[in-house]
Amino acid sequence: MLISSDQIEQLHRRFKQLSGDQPTIRKENFNNVPDLDLNPIRSKIIRAFFDNRNLRKGPSGVADEINFEDFLTIMSYFRPIDITMDEEQVQLCRKEKLRFLFHMYDSDSDGRITLEEYRNVVEELLSGNPHIEKESARSIADGAMMEAASVCVGQMEPDQVYEGITFDDFLKIWQGIDIETKMHVRFLNVEAMALCH
Amino acid sequence: MGFQVFVAFGPWNLLLLLVALECSEASSDLNESTNSTTRHEPNVQFAAASSEPDENIPVFVLDYDYVQIPYEVTLWILLASLAKIGFHLYRRLPGLMPESCLLIIVGALVGAIIFGTDHKSPPVMDSSIYFLYLLPPIVLESGYFMPTRPFFENIGSILWWAGLGALINAFGIGLSLYLICQIKAFGLSDVNLLQNLLFGSLISAVDPVAVLAVFEEARVNEPLYMMIFGEALLNDGISVVLYNILIAFTKMHKFEDIEPVDILAGCARFVIVGVGGVFFGIIFGFISAFITRFTQNISAIEPLIVFMFSYLSYLVAETLYLSGILAITACAVTMKKYVEENVSQTSYTTIKYFMKMLSSVSETLIFIFMGVSTVGKNHEWNWAFICFTLVFCQVWRAISVFALFYVSNQFRTSPFSIKDQCIIFYSGVRGAGSFSLAFLLPLSLFPRKKMFVTATLVVIYFTVFIQGITIGPLVRYLDVKKTNKKESINEELHIRLMDHLKAGIEDVCGQWSHYQVRDKFKKFDHRYLRKILIRKNLPKSSIVSLYKKLEMKQAIEMVETGILSSTAFSVPQLAQRIQGTKRLSPEDVESMRDLLTHNMYQVRQRTLSYNKYNLKPQTSEKQAKEILIRRQNTLRESMRKGHSLPWGEPAGAKNIRYLSFPYGHPQPASRHRRVAEFTDNDSSDSELPSIMFKEHSQRDLPQERYPTQEIIPMKSLYRGRKPTNFRYQRNTSQEEHVGQGRRAALRPKPLFRAVDEEYESGEESAEEASAIGPGWPPEHRPSREHHKSHSPLLRRK
Asked: Where is the EF-hand domain (chain A) (predicted)?
């Protein structure tokens, strides 16, 4: 995925700022971003940067450090969809973005979002608020899982067991929501965009 | 279309018309006869007694002069209300044409009657009455019901579009008309530039709220809706500011004396007026929010405070020659968030309805005036002026829409398509605002006022009727992108996650974005503002208010479904208990929490459906029927299905049962007691609820119904009944059915609305978490207890 050269410049500067002029960034470097501390899902976001699946380095695992190229790879997930792209490319882009999200939920890389992982996500999301107890978060997650099951699997047999949300199920859930417009960062919005992989 | 409207009037409307006719005839007769009598002798004697001198005490007198003004005003308002009732009785009509059409027709009718009977209409409308009494309620109502989150998300585009759009339109139309006036053939050469500009400013005041109802029918997407709403909100303010500035210019000099310095001063004034107005509005909003913090013991005056402070903000701003409209709008927006949390449920309802009522009355009066002015002799029809006005209105609106959106699309993450822009262009419906400003033009400065009024009326009629009626089909034809507001938990969660993700990534990249601004504002709000402006013991008192709201709903529904509760809800009692006594039973705590868990979202619904003339109707009856249907269904289902659970359980810790309700203050003793109650039920029965959940989750019907279903019958079940009654068996007794129905209807979905706004929902789920209170139907309790008996959860406590 290509980004324009101005933006690469800009990102490179930012990369150097974060890494302290080192060629690679480690997780600790993200502590230099003060506003990120207040973000409830910061650990997931940081982890996403190092996730091998996002970096296209492997099916699972977490890298220790990333270089600038990896940094750009992650950033490219947040590029806006170009209006000139045709339908197929738009679908591909969409899938890529959703895959990124999926990896955020699926922390153990088993290809499914299990109830526990989902609960974890919800707890983190609501962790910013001191008034909510863990049980509330838990019940929310349970309910969401239930709903996902109904959306994805439909009528379930009495003996059927729903293991977790697979990527296809995840796509189904997201069907109505337009991720293309939601998941992009403003500054990357420039004409000379190339296609998603 | 018009015929249908008339048909829909109904018999009593005709009756009222006849009555009105009678009255006006009678009054016109009286007017002639009383014209000769002096003011100090209001009594009019009938012919029979009139020959006598004044020594006789009149047996029967008719004094119409005394009551004329209020009487006629009341009659008009009633007539308009009856017409509205007729309008809404015919279901398809509100979606087809805006309600302003109806009001205009009624106004024209009244005007025709008054004209026909040669009656002197009471001088109700003049400048001060309009600006002081009729305008504020309308503006207050639109500010108060504005959906804040979408508004602030789109605020850049809205300000850009509304502000610049109004200016471009005003000056464009004014200048073009001036050029037309220069053409000698049209006989308009005495209309100078300033007058044209003034006319331009008042004719560019759009009132697209009228079309919002049509939009709702078509379910257009949220940003488009917000643009129109935002424009409606700000447009009035901007037009009035412009109007006043230009009037000041007109009064001040003749055209030739105006220097560039004056123009600059005018521009500066424009900005100051706008910003100053908003500033005052915000201050008053905070003051009133602060005061409502202390009104818990005297909740009857809460609506009064809200209204008086809003009105005060308007008046203060007007005193300083700032924009009162923008002030009152800002006040309403600021105040709403905090006031809603502070005031009691009844005050909240009162405020909503009263606001609607006031604005309805104002608008009706203005439209009636419009109708009265239409049918009359004081018109001046100038073909050229009127036709060109119409043409230029459309042309300049198109120019401003396409130009401004072209620019703002560059900066938006979700640009507006050409279709959207066409719809925005076409929704430029004028309304009462333009008419009022035209009507109030001072005749001394505007010798050709009648022409302006006529032209304004023509534009209004044209846009309201033709554009208003055709915009619905146009929206459908263009297939504008619809909103996909599926109310699902997952969606809510994901969107929330996305917000944070975006904010996080933007932080990492070191870029500023409006998400961060919003985040920062929320933190500031949370840390400081809420502490000052909202009553103490926030979680608890919000529970109380939430409790009250839900209680009210429950009470209504229970009565409707015929299940009466033996226990009364006593709110004061609850309040006392919540204030910290430890005498609450744990079951109450849990039941309350469960209830709140499942009902919270209904209370916190996002009001995207804004309808100026209506509040969202209560759907309690539909819900009650739903319950009955569901009960039968679940009964059938439960007879057929098997037992096992939907969730696979790899490890013991992962509790599959989704019913892991939050529960707070542990009271093991009672819990065990309850467990004991249930363990003697058949295991098969215990499985039923979860299966029923499954069944019901397939039939995914609008979630709004669920919470109330959940609430209802368990209450009666719970209170003071013996354990055996909780058996989930196929009994024919009412309660059991109810019980099963209840459980079947249990859904987790309601929780999700709670996740709506992070902090706010946080508060509410917190409330549920720490909820304590008696008398709450523990509708989930029995099932939960069931699960507890099988689950490791119980052991944890």
From this structure: 93-128
